[in-house]
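1st attempt posting a full record on here, be nice pls
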Amino acid sequence: MDASLWQPYIQIICSRHSQTPCRVIRPGFSGTYPTFIVDYRWVVMLFGRLFAGALAFDTEKQVNSILAQDSAIPAPKIIACGTLFEDSDTWPWPYLIYEYIPGFSIGKVYDQVSFEDKLELAQYRVKSPGDYMRSHWQMSPCFNLAGILISNY
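the predicted structure (as tokens):
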């Protein structure tokens, strides 16, 4: 991800929400949408049109508001949100600004994690968040385009 290409836009976003100064902008870890770490204080995540960007934006906001209610699950707080292009006929580029939580990607050290710890991590990731979400949301059955039930929470 070329941070220099996105720098003017990240500066506009940060200025809009009084998240200044905005000196050091570096790309976050590769993912679906452009994500940048700003001055090691904020994370700006923009949502593209591809891969259901509008739905992903809304989902991120909803999940974050649920996680914020439980201190047992460490999650960065959303500081601000909006759209880069307010009155545009093109994609508006919705974005979220999160607080920055220092750390590193598990992908960078995953080969050093023991098999037992990987199993424990997988159980935590699969069971705890899913159980947590089901306890907070009334989940309905999910069907694919052919009308076949693919999950029933």
